[in-house]
Design goal:
The chain is an alpha/beta fold. It folds into 2 domains: about 210 residues, Rossmann fold; about 60 residues. It contains 11 helices and 14 strands. The strands form 3 sheets. It has a 6-stranded mixed sheet, with helices on both faces. Strand 7, helix 6 and strand 8 form a beta-alpha-beta unit. The radius of gyration is 22 Å and the shape is elongated. The two termini are about 35 Å apart.
């Protein structure tokens, strides 16, 4: 990993019914980092903290090498494109073109040709009032808007919300092309497994306001497996010594289904212990998240 475009150091945000952090998170330049977690985990709050839309109770945050607490930070923010999960309704009476005329004044790198190209790709008519657009059409317009000033960093909160399958494929292609120069960065939150698999280089798991781990995508999927094991001396007690053990389930006939986050080490261990692996299955992103959520619930109950 190279330079970090976002850094959160021991950041905390306290609310009456929720606490975020303390969070330590670094987002590397030139890659796509996806934050995944259940609703209410703190993903959107983290984005708002990064953009200085709300203030942390503790900790330090830097954005593109600058502290977000600096008063004159508009030049830094002009290098960022932000798509929130929920779009405000206060500008529903405006035509999309009128909002564009206002927004583009804030960006010295605004590219009218890029904007028009994206409208054509997404099949959006910006002469329509925003309040009369469907959810999907509004989402496509907002995507075009945040991409048209060639931001160095894109912060996308559930970017495909409301998109139909064809528009989703177009969005994936547009974001891949956005990353082609090699010096741009995406920080996103998504609950769409296929979206994360197609876009992300790094995956961050966030649950109950805590970052539980940051993983390189290919390494993650290569490490989390379910093994079906049996053998003359196989028992739950013995399997509990397996490297990276995350769960044990009896499947009948002396067979155990064992989940590990250290598959290569666990496989070697099984060989040494005389266990036969009859079947192995790489866990999907939602499976891994479910295991982590259950572990966090167990931690909170203890």
């Amino acid at each position: 990993m190279t330079d970090n475009v976002v850094r959160l150091t021991e950041v905390e945000l306290k609310r009456p019914h929720f606490q975020l952090g303390p969070i330590h998170l670094e987002v590397p330049k030139g890659y796509v980092t996806a934050i995944v977690g259940p609703n209410g985990s703190g993903k959107s709050s983290t984005f708002r903290l990064i953009l200085d839309l709300c203030k942390p109770d503790k900790g330090e945050i830097s954005l593109l090498g600058q502290s977000v607490s600096e008063e004159e930070d508009w030049q830094t923010k002009s290098r960022v494109g932000y798509l929130p999960e929920l779009i405000s309704s206060h500008d529903d009476r405006l035509k999309a073109s009128s909002k564009t005329e206002f927004v583009k004044k804030w960006y010295c790198n605004w590219d009218i040709n890029r904007y028009q190209e994206l409208l054509r790709l997404f099949e959006v008519d910006d002469s329509i009032k925003l309040g009369r657009m469907s959810k999907g059409m509004r989402r496509k317009y907002e995507l075009a808007l945040v991409l048209s000033h060639h931001p160095e960093l894109l912060i996308l909160d559930e970017p495909s919300s409301g998109l139909d399958p064809l528009a989703w494929r177009t969005m994936i292609d547009v974001l891949h092309r956005y990353m082609e120069p090699g010096d741009r960065t995406i920080l996103m939150a998504s609950h769409i497994v296929e979206e994360v698999k197609r876009l992300a280089d790094y995956i961050v798991f966030m649950i109950h306001g805590r970052v539980l781990g940051v993983y390189e995508k290919d390494e993650l999927f290569g490490s989390w497996h379910a093994f079906y094991v049996h053998g003359e001396h196989v028992s739950r007690k013995l399997v509990q010594a397996m490297p990276g053990l995350c769960g044990i389930e009896e499947t009948g006939g002396g067979m155990l289904r064992v989940i590990t986050r250290m598959a290569p080490d666990a496989e070697e261990w099984c060989g040494r212990e005389g266990m036969t692996i009859t079947h192995r299955q790489a866990l999907q992103l939602d499976d891994i998240l479910a295991v982590l959520v259950e572990q966090e619930r167990t931690r909170l109950r203890s």
